[in-house]
TrEMBL record:
<comment type="similarity">
    <text>Belongs to the class-I pyridoxal-phosphate-dependent aminotransferase family.</text>
</comment>
<dbReference type="GO" id="GO:0030170">
    <property type="term" value="F:pyridoxal phosphate binding"/>
</dbReference>
<dbReference type="InterPro" id="IPR050596">
    <property type="entry name" value="AspAT/PAT-like"/>
</dbReference>
<dbReference type="InterPro" id="IPR015424">
    <property type="entry name" value="PyrdxlP-dep_Trfase"/>
</dbReference>
<dbReference type="InterPro" id="IPR015422">
    <property type="entry name" value="PyrdxlP-dep_Trfase_small"/>
</dbReference>
<keyword id="KW-0808">Transferase</keyword>
<dbReference type="InterPro" id="IPR004838">
    <property type="entry name" value="NHTrfase_class1_PyrdxlP-BS"/>
</dbReference>
<keyword id="KW-0032">Aminotransferase</keyword>
<dbReference type="GO" id="GO:0008483">
    <property type="term" value="F:transaminase activity"/>
</dbReference>
<feature type="domain" description="Aminotransferase class I/classII large">
    <location>
        <begin position="31"/>
        <end position="389"/>
    </location>
</feature>
<keyword id="KW-0663">Pyridoxal phosphate</keyword>
<dbReference type="Pfam" id="PF00155">
    <property type="entry name" value="Aminotran_1_2"/>
</dbReference>
<dbReference type="InterPro" id="IPR015421">
    <property type="entry name" value="PyrdxlP-dep_Trfase_major"/>
</dbReference>
<protein>
    <recommendedName>
        <fullName>Aminotransferase</fullName>
        <ecNumber>2.6.1.-</ecNumber>
    </recommendedName>
</protein>
<dbReference type="InterPro" id="IPR004839">
    <property type="entry name" value="Aminotransferase_I/II_large"/>
</dbReference>
<dbReference type="GO" id="GO:0006520">
    <property type="term" value="P:amino acid metabolic process"/>
</dbReference>
Length: 393
């Protein structure tokens, strides 16, 4: 056997990708499996975005670009931050990366040392703790269950912060819970953070555009507490808003010193994100925005259907969400009622094998007894999946 690094052995492969792979495998073997594991919109990338990329290829825009992104795309990102979030960044304060995933990876590598602590509210996006571990640092998980709408309280945050805290992660609206923090809640968290000036803050706004309450503007912690700007990184990307997960473009805005360090990490790993994808992302940010509204309408309608259908099943309780294309029901009642099933992992296995429904167990996101259901699939698939789960319940 070959000796692998302690580093790689400290992490596990992404559980969400594993479920999707298992569903694919069963389907290839002829089994009828409805996939509710997807972490990406089921819509096609909008046509004007594709056309921009095709034109880029034809024009020969197929070489290295600046490591941190083309000046044109950075300009589009700066304009987006101004227009939609009220932030004024200079080009030196922006880094374009290969997906939101690389933005966070760069950040972890750039600011964390062994022994540093990173506060991560649970349930969390699966990659945060593992990317923190890969940087040699320590994830400090703060549990927030359904009774607090999966959001941490200021008292919990205070309890988790120490003089070793180097980074605090906020993801709102959240993958996997679909919950978003209000301005008041963020203001209260910001007040606690003021007492820990050595802690950087990462706000992951990947689901900014997938929110049901379109009357209330999106807020992140910087909107609520502008004084935190010198130590806050705003992470976002085009993957979810424009159905561009495969193009791999994410971006970060933040203090120049940190952005520069993140860029240095990127320059020694991937270099620039794909030139063609950068042109596509620019078209997404600068072009017509009605594609977002169309997807949002479909997600909202499916959300309403699924939440109601789940709550009608004995043993499942599901809170309505604020946004994203996930719902995060409590399934402990169902676990208790099924023979041979004693936790959410076993429930996920049971459902995929016995009901032909693939979903991701809550423990993959740090909260046992729940499941993440993706509504990024057709209404027909969702109806059938709800019938199948009701059938075994
Ligand atoms: N942040 C959150 C909360 C996510 O859910 C995801 C994708 O699942 C990402 C970041 C990364 O997105 P990307 O595909 O752009 O790397």
């Amino acid at each position: 056997t070959i000796k692998l690094s302690a580093r790689v052995q400290s992490v596990k492969p992404s559980a969400t990708l594993a479920i999707t792979a298992r569903a694919k495998e069963l389907r290839a073997a002829g089994k009828d499996v409805i996939g509710l594991g997807a972490g990406e919109p089921d819509f096609d990338t909008p046509e004007h975005i594709k056309q921009a990329a095709i034109a880029a290829i034809r024009d020969g825009f197929t070489k290295y670009t600046a490591v941190d992104g083309t000046p044109e795309l950075k300009g589009a990102i700066i304009a987006k931050f101004q227009r939609e979030n009220g932030f004024d960044y200079r080009p030196e304060e922006i880094l374009v990366s290969c997906g939101g995933k690389q933005s966070f990876f760069n950040l972890a590598q750039a600011v964390l040392d062994p022994g540093d602590e990173v506060v991560i509210p649970a349930p969390y996006w699966v990659s945060y703790p593992d990317m923190v571990l890969l940087a040699g640092a320590v994830p400090v998980l703060v549990d927030a269950g359904a009774e607090q709408r999966f959001k941490i309280t200021p008292a919990q945050l205070r309890g988790a912060l120490t003089e070793r805290t180097r980074l605090v992660v906020i993801n709102s609206p959240s993958n996997p819970t679909g919950m978003a923090y209000s301005r008041d809640e963020l203001t209260a968290l910001g007040e606690v953070l003021r007492d820990f000036p050595q802690a950087l803050i990462a706000t992951d706004d990947m689901y900014e555009h997938i929110r049901w309450d379109t009357q209330t503007p999106f807020v992140n912690i910087l909107n609520a507490c502008p004084d935190l700007a010198p130590r806050t990184l705003v992470l976002n990307g085009v993957s979810k808003a424009y159905s561009m997960t495969g193009w791999r473009i994410g971006y970060a805005g933040g203090p120049e010193q940190v952005i520069k360090a993140m860029k240095k990490i990127q320059s020694q790993s991937t270099s620039n994100p794909t030139s063609i994808s950068q042109v596509a992302a620019q078209a997404a940010l600068e072009g017509p925005q009605d594609c977002i509204g169309e997807m949002l309408g479909a997600f909202r309608e499916r959300h309403d259907f699924v939440v109601e259908a789940l709550n009608r099943i004995d043993g499942i309780e599901c809170l309505p969400t604020d946004g994203t294309f996930y719902v995060f029901p409590k399934v402990t009642g169902l676990i208790q009622r099924l023979d041979g099933v004693s936790n959410d992992l076993e429930l996920a296995e049971y459902l995929i094998e016995q009901a032909g429904v693939a979903l991701v167990p809550g423990s993959a996101f740090g909260l046992d007894g729940y499941a993440r259901i993706s509504i990024a699939t057709s209404r027909q698939n969702l109806e059938q999946a709800m019938q199948r789960i009701a059938g075994i319940a």
